[in-house]
Amino acid sequence: MSYQITNILTAIDQVAQDNLDDCYQDEQGSHTYQDLYQQTNCLAAYLQSLALPQEAPVIVYGDQSFLMVVTMLAAVKAGHAYIPVDAHSPKERLIQINEIAHPAAILGTLELPVQLDTLTVTPDQIQAHLNYQATPLDRTQSVAGDQNFYIIFTSGTTGVPKGVQISHNNLLSYVNWTVNDFNLHAKIRCLSQPPYSFDLSVMDLYPTLVLGGKLLAISHATTENFGQLFKVLPTLDLEEWVSTPSFAELCLLDKNFKQENYPHLHHFLFCGEELTRSTAKALLQRFPQAQVFNTYGPTEACVAVTAIEITPQVIEQNQRLPIGFAKPDTTITAVDDAGNDSFEGELIISGPSVSKGYLNNPEKTAAAFFTKEGQRAYRSGDLGAIKADGSIYYRGRTDFQIKLHGYRIELEDIDQNLSALPMIDQAITVPRYGANHKVNQIIAFVVLNQELENPSTTIKEQLAQNVMEYMIPQRIEVRQQLPKTANGKIDRKTLMAEVNNHD
Fold it and tell me: What is the DSSP string of 37-56?
């Protein structure tokens, strides 16, 4: 069956009106499409009654919950892009995002960890307005076309996160591709594991809802508790699995993670980091009836822009797996150091899913985005090789941005936050690579200006107040001095070589 969706919100509403099934299930229980339809409409009408500045974004703060999904969709129906901020991030991140985004409001599905000057709608107020009837919803205000649908903040090189603006049209391009090219069927049952502040969550959220499927959500607490995780997963009767390769690798540690215990699991969709040959091989051995898709894409191009089914033949033929072929409406080219088209070099992505740029950051937007043959284009910073048949292979980063457990991290971001700590004079971080070219550790080298009894613990505790958990280095090494380059900068490459050659 071929789908041609023209409006995400209308498509979800149409599915919801005819559907008596559940759309969302977590440890607290299940919620129907009727709940989704009624609650998003009522909450959206309430948000419109607040007369917020037109098209201004709103922060939605919370965790993996049905209320978070309702609130995000209600914001968009009311005419406002949502900025998801995960409750497990440090409060400084919420403060930073609030300062950069100038949101019209903060919608707290959970209590905020800090008081801010921005208009705040509390969890009690949200709950109280899930059946708001006082004024009708004005659908003409709902987000459409080139208006922002969501804004996801990623790690930034200056220690300040960047807000990637994704429009309704960007998302539409992505969703139409996913529901048509991955053999997904109506009413599919899909795992919902990544936090909503991570754009990988879009891969499970919107395709599942427009297909009238069911999102099977697992909480942060369950994801962190392996015993609980391995107990819960087989009970979900999953048909589709969306995650980073790292999460699947974790699950492969459980010998019961195999087809017999997941009889209907027939789709694996991976994004967020490199899928290794060994992981793909192990997965196909455990799930011989499943289709495994490797995808690639930066947040700036709306989740993913390439895909390939990883078959035993693909594994056999490649030491390093391809990231796939560009989706039909998208062009991916490689440019060499001189900026000329080449078969190998920095990947340039152009097409309708490419973002208009970073929120309130014209300088960074101008550096990364441009127009190419009438299409929005993005300099990805990813190195790749493009074969004659159009298949693309990932070769690493042009800068010091890395992927760890699926999260995109700018090493300079951690450097900046480490250097800001009062006990540190100098700091630099380097990735340690394991097998298969994957980063498995971040190591920080620091020069202190005072004696510390337990430097590693102290620094990690202080750093945790300012950065996300996944950005905290696994190892911290104290040095008297750090190597320098000819122009006096700390020499990251020398330290990278030391960590990766002599460790």
Answer: HHHHHHHHHHHHHTTPPTT-
What is the model's pLDDT at position 157?
65
d(CA 76, CA 81): 6
Q: State the first-to-last Cα distance of the chain, in angstroms, to the nearest integer.
A: 53
C-alpha distances out from residue 411 to 51, 326, 401, Å: 41, 28, 6
**180 inside domain:** no
The residue segments making up the domain with residue 364 are 327-395
Contact predicate 292/270, CB 8 Å: yes
Residue 193: name the closest of 394, 15, 405, 16 by CA.
405
- How far is residue 242's CA from residue 193's CA, in Å, rounded to a whole number? 8
C-beta separation of 346 from 377 below 8 A = no
Query: Torsion angle of alpha carbons 17, 21, 23, 28, nearest 10°?
Result: 130
Asked whether 208 and 190 are in contact (CB, 8 A), the reply is yes
Residue 198: C-alpha distances to residues 62, 184, 258, 336, 493 (Å)? 13, 22, 27, 30, 29
Q: Does 503 have pLDDT greater than 50?
A: no
Amino acid at 410: E
Beta bridge partners of 333: 348
The amino acid at 242: V
pLDDT tens readout for residues 371-383: 999 999 999 999 9
Give the model confidence (pLDDT) of 159-176 as tens digits: 789 999 999 999 999 999
Closest Cα to residue 51, out of 85, 77, 79, 82?
Answer: 79
Please report whether residue 428 resides in a domain: yes
Short-list 74, 73, 97, 71, CA closest to 85: 97
- 371 domain-assigned: yes
- What is the arithmetic mean of pLDDT over 343-368? 97
Question: pLDDT band for position 488 (50/70/90)?
Answer: low
Q: What is the mean pLDDT of residues 291-315?
A: 98
* pLDDT greater than 50 at residue 39: yes
Shared-domain flag, residues 389 and 417: no
CA distance 325 to 306: 5
Q: Residue 489: what pLDDT? A: 74
Would you say residue 218 lies in a domain? Answer: no
